[in-house]
Amino acid sequence: MIESKENQLDNKAFTEDCHKVLMAVSDALYAIGGKWKLMIIIAMARGNKRFTEIQRQVSGISARVLSSELKELEMNGFIIKKVESGYPVSIEYELLPYSDTLEEVVGAMTKWGMQHREKVKAEMGSEKLKNQ
């Protein structure tokens, strides 16, 4: 009887911990998830500030999607849109200091992405050898 109560408490703590982790990951994916947001931030960190520069650097993104993603990044406090009046009107996007908090995430994803690419290439190479 005592063991089952302890087991229930352990199980409840595990469930609560799991829920916290899932919620945190969900929040992170909401803010930076999807195919484009981190790529946009990386392109901007490399000096691309204008809409066309970002679109050119992030190959495959449409203007409509880029516009939507920039609005979401602005809403989540990663970037700011700066509009300078004049002729013609000049619009630039600037990373806010909060975007620096993603440096570790981007570094870890870069490292993992390189490892994964090498793993897939190695597996494809060994598959080709098996089929010969």
From TrEMBL:
<dbReference type="GO" id="GO:0003677">
    <property type="term" value="F:DNA binding"/>
</dbReference>
<dbReference type="Pfam" id="PF01638">
    <property type="entry name" value="HxlR"/>
</dbReference>
<protein>
    <submittedName>
        <fullName>Transcriptional regulator</fullName>
    </submittedName>
</protein>
<keyword id="KW-0238">DNA-binding</keyword>
<feature type="domain" description="HTH hxlR-type">
    <location>
        <begin position="18"/>
        <end position="121"/>
    </location>
</feature>
<dbReference type="InterPro" id="IPR002577">
    <property type="entry name" value="HTH_HxlR"/>
</dbReference>
<dbReference type="InterPro" id="IPR036390">
    <property type="entry name" value="WH_DNA-bd_sf"/>
</dbReference>
<keyword id="KW-0805">Transcription regulation</keyword>
<dbReference type="InterPro" id="IPR036388">
    <property type="entry name" value="WH-like_DNA-bd_sf"/>
</dbReference>
<keyword id="KW-0804">Transcription</keyword>
